């Protein structure tokens, strides 16, 4: 490397920042908070690869004396795990995609289209979003029973598409309400229709926000338990969280099997999060500096 390159690198090197006592205290609190949040995952990792004998001998916090996959294999075979994974990916993916599309369209009408009574509509959406899911169980059960979608994946897709899009509409309508009018007026003067403005102007600008919603909708739907447990009664349609809950009703399951099941159940969501991590960070950053 030449001396010019070294000088340039030294010139752009950021000066070392000396942290104050308060900053060190905040950093220490964040590290402690992070360790507390990671502790359950650490316990799962310690016990997922233990044998039942190893667990009984060394306890839940001891390191594995021998590497064993028996717990994971037991859960994998007992619950037909690949099919449960596919069901969860299928329902969560469809809900995330449909909810983002529905949210963007309804928010465009409310935030930019200035629908009459917009404030009341947004208020009703917010109130509906705050309604506990327990209150929805019986009406939804009667409705899907009557139309023949009870114990069907599509019942879960429809229910959570509506629920997630209600939150997305509430959030996006506030974002679209502050959309620069000059850009919209310029597009109108250029002869763009409402659909062209939405498709070619609004969507590209709001793509980071929509990406964040897509990730959240997928993870939220993946972790849902109560409504899927009430509507998906056959093993053919059950999702991963329901498969986990079946461990409590089977005497053959032990702590190592539960830990192994918990570990492989969160792997798909971790992979999904890591794939979209940059998109998620970019979307949050864009929202914070807007």
UniProtKB/TrEMBL annotation:
It comes from the Bacteria. GO terms for cellular component: plasma membrane. It is a multi-pass membrane protein. Residues 85-276 form the ABC transmembrane type-1 domain. It is found in: Cell membrane. Its main location: membrane. Gene3D superfamilies: MetI-like. InterPro entries: MetI-like, MetI-like_sf. Pfam families: BPD_transp_1. Belongs to the binding-protein-dependent transport system permease family. PANTHER family: ABC TRANSPORTER PERMEASE PROTEIN MG189-RELATED-RELATED, SN-GLYCEROL-3-PHOSPHATE TRANSPORT SYSTEM PERMEASE PROTEIN UGPE. This is Carbohydrate ABC transporter permease. It comes from Bifidobacterium fermentum. The lineage of its organism: Bacteria, Bacillati, Actinomycetota, Actinomycetes, Bifidobacteriales.
């Amino acid at each position: 490397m030449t001396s010019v390159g070294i000088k340039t690198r030294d010139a752009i090197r950021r000066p070392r920042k000396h942290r104050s006592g308060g900053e060190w205290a905040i950093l220490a609190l964040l590290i402690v908070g992070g360790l507390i949040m990671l502790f359950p995952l650490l316990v799962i990792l310690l016990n997922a690869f233990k044998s039942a004998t190893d667990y009984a001998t060394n306890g839940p916090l001891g390191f594995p004396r021998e590497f064993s996959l028996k717990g994971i294999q037991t859960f994998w075979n007992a619950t037909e795990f690949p099919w449960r994974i596919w069901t969860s990916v299928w329902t969560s993916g469809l809900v995330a995609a449909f909810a983002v599309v529905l949210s963007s369209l309804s928010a465009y009408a409310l935030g930019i289209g200035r629908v009459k009574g917009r404030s009341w509509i947004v208020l009703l959406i917010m109130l509906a979003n705050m309604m506990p899911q327990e209150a929805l169980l019986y009406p939804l059960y009667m409705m899907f029973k009557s139309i023949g979608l009870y114990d069907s994946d599509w019942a879960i897709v429809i229910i959570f598409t509506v629920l997630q899009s209600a939150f997305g509409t509430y959030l996006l309508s506030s974002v679209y309400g502050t959309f620069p009018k000059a850009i919209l007026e310029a597009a109108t003067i250029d002869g763009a229709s409402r659909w062209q403005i939405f498709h070619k102007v609004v969507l590209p600008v709001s793509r980071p926000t929509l990406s964040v919603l897509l990730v959240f909708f997928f993870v939220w739907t993946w972790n849902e338990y109560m409504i899927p447990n009430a509507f998906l009664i056959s093993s053919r349609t059950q999702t991963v969280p329901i498969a986990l809950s079946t461990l409590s009703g089977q005497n053959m399951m032990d702590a190592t099997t539960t830990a192994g099941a918990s570990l492989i159940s969160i792997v798909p969501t971790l992979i999904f999060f890591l794939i979209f991590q940059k998109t998620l960070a970019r979307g949050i950053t864009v929202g914070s500096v807007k």
